[in-house]
């Protein structure tokens, strides 16, 4: 599991809806300490004795709480969890030591890339060979500029340490040469973006994926087989 921002009850409900048992979760991989990513981590880990993997910076933020098994990680190399190789990737975001993750098993690669304000060469290099990708398209620059957020929050979201705009996401997709089976566009702002805006900007690049989905904040998306 990557992150857990829901309450324990809501997490259990969502897992049950997907016919997934929390007892079978081999680990929770935390990306960073912002509340919408870690609110349920401690409670879920304690109830089901799940190891929690995170960077030292994220742990020392003091926001995770007590966990039954703590696994400190770094972005200097991959780690093995069962049959899955997990590679943490450092990203520019306004948190203590944020990472995103790439998962590899049976010659297939899934990349999860959200919560970053700019695309670095390291990100481009690590995510070049994904078969499936969950990718942030957070905001439309014009909607953010003209939207309801206070100026300080607008500056934070639009900074190099905030979130990817549609235009930045489009530029990142231009760097990919390997076709994707699945592209899941995620972390769309409800106030500062829309599917239509994303599709307009990314239209040419969406052809690189066999299937394109939008992750709904409230419903998520179903299991996908790479």
Beginning-to-end CA distance, first to last residue: 17 Å
- Helical residues, percent: 25-40%
Tally of individual domains: 2
Strand content: 15-25%
How many individual helices? Answer: 9
User: How many strand units?
Assistant: 10
Q: For the CA atoms, what is the radius of gyration?
A: 17 Å
Strand order of the largest sheet: 4-5-6-7-8-9-10
Taken from the alpha-carbon principal axes, the silhouette is globular
Largest sheet: 7 strands, mixed
* Average pLDDT: 97
The class by helix and strand makeup works out as alpha/beta
Pick out the low-confidence regions.
none
Task: Summarize the helix and strand pattern as letters.
Answer: HEHHEHEEEEEHEHHHEHE
Describe this structure in words.
The protein is of the alpha/beta class and 226 residues long. It folds into 2 domains: 1-77, Metallo-beta-lactamase, Chain A (4-Layer Sandwich), CATH 3.60.15; 107-220 and 222-226, no CATH class. It is built from 9 helices and 10 strands. It has a 7-stranded mixed β-sheet. Strands 1-2-3 form a 3-stranded parallel β-sheet. The mean pLDDT is 97.
């Amino acid at each position: 599991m990557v992150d857990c921002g829901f309450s324990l009850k809501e997490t259990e409900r969502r897992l049950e809806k997907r016919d997934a048992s929390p007892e079978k979760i081999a680990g929770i991989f935390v990306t960073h300490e912002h509340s919408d990513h870690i609110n349920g981590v401690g409670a879920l880990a304690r109830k089901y004795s799940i190891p929690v993997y995170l960077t030292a910076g994220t742990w020392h933020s003091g926001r995770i709480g007590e966990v039954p098994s703590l696994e400190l990680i770094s972005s200097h190399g991959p780690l093995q969890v069962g049959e899955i190789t997990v590679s943490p990737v450092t990203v520019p975001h306004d948190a203590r030591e944020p990472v995103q993750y790439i998962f590899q098993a049976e010659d297939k690669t899934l990349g999860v890339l959200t919560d970053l304000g700019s695309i670095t060469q390291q990100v481009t290099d690590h995510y070049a060979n994904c078969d499936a990708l969950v990718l942030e398209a957070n905001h439309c620059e014009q909607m953010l500029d003209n939207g309801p957020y206070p100026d300080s929050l607008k500056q934070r979201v639009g900074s190099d340490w905030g979130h990817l705009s549609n235009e930045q996401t489009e530029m990142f997709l231009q760097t990919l040469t390997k076709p994707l089976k699945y592209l899941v566009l995620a972390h769309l702002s409800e106030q500062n973006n829309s599917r239509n805006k994303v599709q307009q900007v990314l239209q040419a690049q969406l052809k690189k994926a066999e299937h394109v989905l939008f992750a709904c904040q409230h419903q998520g998306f179903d299991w996908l087989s790479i």
